[in-house]
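Deliverable D4.2, example record:
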Amino acid sequence: MNDAIPSFSSLEFKRPDRDSLKANYAIIDAFLDQGDHAEALKHFDEVRRAYESWASLVHLQFSRDTTNENYKEARDYADALTPVATGYEVETKRRLLKSRDVLTKLVGEYVARLWDADITTFDARIEKDLEEEARLSAEYTALLASARIEWDGQHLNLSGLVPYLQSNDRDTRHRAEQARWAFFEQNGPELDRIFDDLVHLREKMARTLGFEHYTALGYRRMRRTDYGPAEVAAFREKILKHVTPLVSALMQRRRLEMGWGSLKAWDEALIDPKGNPKPAGDYDLLLHNAQEMFDRLDPDGDMGAFFAAMTKDGYMDLLNRDGKAGGGFCTSFPTIGMPFIFANFNGTHNDIGVFTHEMGHAYQNWKSRDLPSVDTLWPTMEAAEIHSMGLEFLTWPQIDLLVEEGAADRYRHMHLIDSLSFLPYGACVDHFQHEIYADPEMPPAERHKLWRRLEKQYLPWRDWGDLAYPGKGGRWQAQMHIYRSPFYYIDYTLALCCAMQLWLGSRHDPKGTMKTYRKLCAAGGSKPFTELVADAGLVSPFEADALAEVVHEAEQVLMD
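Output generated by the structure prediction step:
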């Protein structure tokens, strides 16, 4: 299966420059001058795949070691060159769209619609602004990665602190949250300054491109072609109606089970009264057991073989270490058709969730690797998150292989509660961003007040106690997406509504649901979100009763 795939350690992509970009796009223009749209599109796709593969590797290597000066230099170079490449790309799309009938016959109407959005998101006048946006985003990443938190005689980064945030001991959790938020308070002025610069920069780009505010540009940058802010706002209201009351009740029940006089913010991460279940063992054992899990999950398919190839060829970096960027993600190299999983294992249940989540992204990208257009290798992000969150639920029957002995049922229970609890938080993040970009001149202090107001609305149980910094509204600064990927967060909640439908299906027809999942992954980004959902036999989150049904089923399971 993977004979043609090089090992990750041997990956090397030719570094482009302005001259090579100019030469490549001159070839495309020559084909178009001759009226040969098919050959122009073929070369256009090859050029973009090569550029994306190189840029993905550059940014991945920086994330793997934010202290490496060579990686920093390469990242800065890529951030400066990308707006130039985008300029050539957008001009080519504009030219191809002038022959729309020919274009749609070659690439399909949906790709043309994506390009309709793309050509409104770039102009040569914002090249320097895009470069600055990338620089500020990288500054945020590096700042968080630089955290060295003193803890009982050792120094931890933010990922390394997580096990203590989930400790069975309440005092330990409290101290860990104090240490965490002390870092954010100490760096609060810098974090405010970075975000303020980003907001004003994005507003400036929007106005340069003819938009009234950044929100419209932000939606187009997310390539959303089948819904807008009104539909998203209505979905947030469904979360408030159906989910916030249930999570409030679950939090109250947990407080009573634990015997706490009141629930504090540092109690929320401890979901299981016996302690959150931990992974089955060390890194090597988890990888060995994960192979068996995927083999069992998909005996009629290819997930096990795909994971074996990822392991053999080194397409994963999962262990936490100093200097490594936080979080987890999946990236890809479209010239070779192989994705890469990045994570920060820290010995908590989050390792299992992040691993299965990113594996869902990777499997989708691999299944759709042979789609003819680079535009369709990934779907838009709310569709992409169905694959990741869906796999978190589909692995439930085999999850005992990754969880400590005897704790599989507790893990499933915890995962379901965690998923429901995420929905109001995800809606809060999205609502916050809409308010921010509707009033870009809002002072930093008012942004903190706004977050706290929305937090009380969507997460009314949250009590920060004596943690002054988040208590005044600083929690949002720990959310990477708010800085780096504006309006990319409601995607998780939309996808979770669909992923939980896969969970419902797997409870009654696991084999059929797995077949549906494979088909959905193989479809990649060939259609917009709502069409992909419909083709998979799922109900769109924008439909009236979609969220109510899955929440009702989850409530029955949890309250049983």
